[in-house]
């Protein structure tokens, strides 16, 4: 990047803390560092203790100044970090001083965007910075760090290199049409394509696991009033996050709680009983419940085994999206006395049927494992990395193009074109050929100062 404007932002979280950090990035920041320290000259990558001065020479704060000279910095530009006291007022004063000295306020994700544009990170690594910050479990944090270190990108680069090698073989034959088929057979083009497709399938499988860990899963609790949805939410959360009574309509809005099972975030949503009502407030809650159902990954259909599937439950099941995986949950097993429960499946579309007691905690562990199975989680394994939905889409597109290439037969020109399109899809992941508008969307979701 040339003639880059200097940017500045508070890099630490809002609020009070022992230390607060102002980060700056731009070109030739040494004069700025000298002005803010009263003429001191920092050495690259060595901490300088100093007062941080206002324009009239008054001390705004004191602390450490760290100077990273380009290109040996996070962004590839000159970078300065002012580490002062972490009070909000002090941080705002220091930030205002940096703006006085010619910097402008950084946009969300702009530091990481500059690192990407200066080839310090590829796009998949840049996205993993935000994923590491937002990680909701230790497993997600570990996988995000693997992506940041290049685990995902290395797989993609290897695939792209193999596709490029095959493209060179295929497109070279277009210059010698009388020998093209024999040449490709001798070079084992179909065998090379088959190997690439196998490698892509492996990367896609890993990415799908990483997407589960990054996105987590949305689990909605549905059922007739008073079947124990709120009790189950409390039992899964390990706390009284929802009010439990015998009065129908107690839950008048969706109640959400996040738990972690085997490293996977699960967003459990207790829905207001899906029923007709004249209560204005409850109607709003029911509308939100329908929205939560539409966005869910799995639905738990709760049934009171003393009643079975009543008319209200049948209406609720009929209203669920056809492609939504469902588990039939027979709750309140503790109320069945000493009877031996014969778990009977009433709902034909349910993937499984389970008996639990939300009140006593019976069957909850098995339920958690069943939920993981519904989204295909296979457990954290060495080498897994976080992936986003756009990564999965790009991998699926590449897989489709390679399948088309395999079906081209002797149509060499089509074979070459599908290989080219497959390479473009793979390059979108790491950002070699990514549109500017997509970059704007990606980095706008980062926090300011990162």
UniProtKB/TrEMBL annotation:
Binding site for Mg(2+): 230, 251
Coiled coil: none
GO molecular function: hydrolase activity
Residue numbers binding (6S)-5-formyl-5,6,7,8-tetrahydrofolate: 23, 81, 120, 450
Subcellular localization, as worded in the UniProt entry: Cytoplasm
Enzyme Commission number(s) from the entry: 3.6.-.-
InterPro entries xref list: G_TrmE, GTP-bd, GTP-bd_TrmE_N, GTPase_MnmE, MnmE_dom2, MnmE_helical, P-loop_NTPase, Small_GTP-bd
SUBUNIT field: Homodimer. Heterotetramer of two MnmE and two MnmG subunits.
Full protein name: tRNA modification GTPase MnmE
Organism in which the protein naturally occurs: Vitreoscilla stercoraria
Gene responsible for this protein: mnmE
């Amino acid at each position: 990047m040339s003639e880059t404007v200097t940017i500045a932002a508070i890099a630490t979280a809002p609020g009070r803390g022992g230390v607060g950090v102002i980060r700056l990035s731009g070109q030739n920041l040494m004069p700025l560092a000298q002005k803010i320290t009263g003429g001191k000259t920092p050495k690259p990558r060595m901490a300088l203790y100093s007062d941080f001065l206002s324009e009239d020479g008054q001390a705004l704060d004191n602390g450490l100044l760290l100077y990273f000279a380009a290109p040996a910095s996070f962004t590839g530009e000159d970078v300065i970090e002012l580490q002062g006291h972490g009070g909000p007022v002090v941080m705002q004063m220091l930030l205002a001083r940096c703006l006085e000295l010619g910097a402008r306020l950084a946009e969300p994700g702009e530091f990481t965007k500059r690192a990407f544009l200066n080839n310090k990170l590829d796009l998949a690594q840049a996205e993993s910075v935000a994923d590491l910050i937002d990680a909701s479990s230790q497993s997600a944090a570990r996988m995000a760090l693997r992506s940041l270190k290049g685990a995902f990108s290395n797989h993609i680069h290897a695939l792209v290199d193999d596709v490029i090698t095959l493209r060179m073989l295929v497109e070279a034959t277009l210059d010698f049409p009388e020998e093209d088929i024999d040449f490709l057979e001798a070079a084992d083009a179909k065998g090379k394509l088959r190997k690439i497709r196998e490698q892509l399938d492996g990367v896609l499988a890993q990415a799908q696991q990483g997407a589960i860990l990054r996105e987590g899963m949305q689990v909605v609790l549905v059922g007739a009033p008073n079947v124990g949805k709120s009790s189950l939410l409390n039992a899964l959360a390990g706390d009284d996050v929802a009010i439990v009574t015998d009065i129908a309509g107690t839950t008048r809005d969706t109640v959400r709680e996040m738990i972690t099972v085997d490293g996977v975030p699960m967003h459990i949503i207790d829905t207001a009983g899906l029923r007709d009502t004249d209560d204005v407030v409850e109607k709003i809650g029911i509308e939100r419940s329908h929205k939560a159902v539409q966005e869910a990954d799995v639905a738990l259909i709760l049934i009171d085994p003393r009643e079975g599937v009543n008319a209200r439950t049948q209406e609720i099941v009929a209203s669920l999206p056809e492609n939504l995986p469902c588990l039939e949950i027979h709750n309140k097993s503790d109320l069945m006395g000493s009877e031996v429960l014969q778990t009977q499946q009433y709902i034909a579309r349910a993937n499984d049927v389970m008996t639990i007691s939300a009140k006593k905690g019976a069957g909850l562990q098995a339920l958690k494992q069943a939920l993981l199975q519904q989204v295909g989680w296979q457990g954290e394994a060495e080498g897994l990395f976080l992936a986003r939905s756009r990564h999965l889409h790009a991998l699926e597109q590449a897989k489709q193009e390679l399948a088309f290439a395999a079906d081209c037969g002797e149509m060499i020109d089509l074979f070459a074109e599908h290989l080219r399109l497959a390479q473009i899809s793979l390059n979108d992941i790491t950002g070699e050929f990514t549109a500017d508008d997509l970059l704007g969307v990606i980095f706008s979701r980062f926090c300011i100062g990162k």
